[in-house]
């Protein structure tokens, strides 16, 4: 897992500043790392807005980092359109998604394709996975994350 922490991905911070980030940049504090399929789609927008709306209480305990295969340009548009206040990383080559086992075969209307399985991980201060949710249902998910973090503190 240590190699995963040094993977640098392009992304944006809470203020929309572009840079390259690795999970090691978030060490020293719990990190909520959530993988989502696509910017500006209904479920992904709802999930991002739920994180946005709960960010002030979440940030006291953890970093929040969203990851999708979308480009940095797409992330900037998504962040501005939805007034998002946390990091978004671009994993266009799905390196991090594969490392976390969330790049999966999916199917829609009988068509098979590869894509992100909506998943969330909580990493401890050293970057070790301490909690995971796979095949996340958007409704109520951020509350589940909040409840988990609250129980730990």
Describe this structure in words.
The chain is an alpha+beta fold. 31% of the residues lie in helices and 31% in strands. The protein contains six helices and nine strands. A seven-stranded mixed β-sheet has the order 2-1-5-4-3-8-9. Strands 6-7 form a two-stranded antiparallel sheet.
Name of the level-1 CATH class: Alpha Beta
Radius of gyration: 14 Å
State the CATH topology. Glutaredoxin
Q: State the low-pLDDT regions, or none.
A: none
Mean pLDDT: 95
Second CATH tier, the architecture: 3-Layer(aba) Sandwich
How many strands appear in the DSSP assignment? 9
Following the backbone from N to C, one meets helices and strands in this order, namely HEEEHHEHEHEEEEH
Number of domains: 1
The CATH superfamily name is Glutaredoxin
Instruction: Please estimate the helix content.
Output: 25-40%
Cα separation of the termini: 25 Å
Percentage of residues in DSSP E strands = 25-35%
Summing up helix and strand content along with how strands pair, one would put the structural category as alpha+beta
Which sheet architecture does the biggest sheet show?
7 strands, mixed
Number of helices: 6
Major beta sheet, strand line-up: 2-1-5-4-3-8-9
Taken from the alpha-carbon principal axes, the silhouette is globular
């Amino acid at each position: 897992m240590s190699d995963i922490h040094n993977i640098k991905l392009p992304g944006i911070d809470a203020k929309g500043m572009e840079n390259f980030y690795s999970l090691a940049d978030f060490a020293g504090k719990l990190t909520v790392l959530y993988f989502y399929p696509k910017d500006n789609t209904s479920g992904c927008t709802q999930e991002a807005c739920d994180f946005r709306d709960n960010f002030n209480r979440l940030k006291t305990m953890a970093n929040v980092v969203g990851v999708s295969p979308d480009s940095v340009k797409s992330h900037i548009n998504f962040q501005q359109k939805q007034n998002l206040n946390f990091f978004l990383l671009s994993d266009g080559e799905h390196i991090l998604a594969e490392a976390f086992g969330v790049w999966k075969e999916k199917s829609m209307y009988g068509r098979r394709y590869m894509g992100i399985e909506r998943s969330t991980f909580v990493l401890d201060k050293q970057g070790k996975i301490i909690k995971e949710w796979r095949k996340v249902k958007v409704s109520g998910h951020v509350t589940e994350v909040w409840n988990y973090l609250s129980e730990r503190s």
